[in-house]
Amino acid sequence: MSLPAAPTTSARSPEPAGARRRTRLSFAFQPYVDTALRLVMGHEALLRGPSGEPARQMFAQVAKADLHAFDVDCRNDAIRSGRRLGLERGQQALNINLLPNALGDGGKSLLSTLAVAASEGFPTSKLVLEITESEQVADPASLRDLLADFREFAFRTALDDLLAGWSNLKLLADFRPDFVKLDLALVEGIDLDPRRHAVVRGLKQACDDLGCEIIAEGVERDEESLCLSNLGIFLQQGYLFARPALESLVRDPHFPD
Predict the structure, then answer these.
(1) 217 catalytic, yes or no?
(2) Candidates 130, 217, 220, 223; catalytic one
(3) Which end of the chain is more exposed for a tag (fewer CB within 10 A), N or C?
(4) Which CATH superfamily, name and number, covers 24-176+234-246?
C-alpha cells in the first residue's frame, strides 16, 4: 500500500468561523513501564495547549463537525513531537490517541498519519494507536477489518480505559487489540478491595486467552503496583512512576522498592 504525501500545517483543512482553532498543539508525555524489567516501554502523548492547558479545554474549542479532523491533527502533531524528542530511536513505543469513528473515511486519515510518520522517519512499528472510550465505535468489526488492511505497517492497537465510557467487553471481543488499558477506576485501591481484585483477575485471564496485554492506568501507590504485579500485570502507568512531562520525555521514572 503506497502512502500519500504527508500533510503540512498549511495544508490542513479550512477552518470554519469560530470552530477549529489553530493554536499550536503541545503534548505531555507520560511513560508506562514494565515493573518486572524496571524499564520504560513507551510514552503516551497527551494533548495539551501551548501553555499546558488540559486536553478537555482544547477539545472544548472544537466544533462537533470538526472533531474528527482535529483528531487527525492531534495524531499527526503527536508524531512530530515524538520525533523532536527522539522517540524514533531506541525501543520505546509512542502511544497516540485516536477517536475510532475518525477512521470512517475508509482509512484516508490513517494513511495521512502513517505518511507523517514516514516523512518524519518515525518507524510505524513503534506506534500504538489507542482507541479512546469517548465515543461509541459504530462498527467494531469494520474497524477491526480496516486496521487489518494496514497490517503491513506493523503498528499496534490498544483499547483505552476498559470498562469506562464506551470501552466494554463486547468491543474487546470484536476488536481484538494488542493491548488493553485498564481504567483507573478498577486500579484505584485494588489492594484493598477484593471485588476489584476479582474483576481484574478475571480480565487478566480473558486478555491472556485473547492474546492481548494489559496496561494498568492510574497507578499511584506502591501497594497497587505490587498487587497488579502479583496478578501478572507488569505494564503499568501512573503518577507513582512519573507525571506527564510537557514536551519532554521522562528518562528516570520512579520504581517501587
Answers:
(1) yes
(2) 217
(3) C
(4) EAL domain (3.20.20.450)
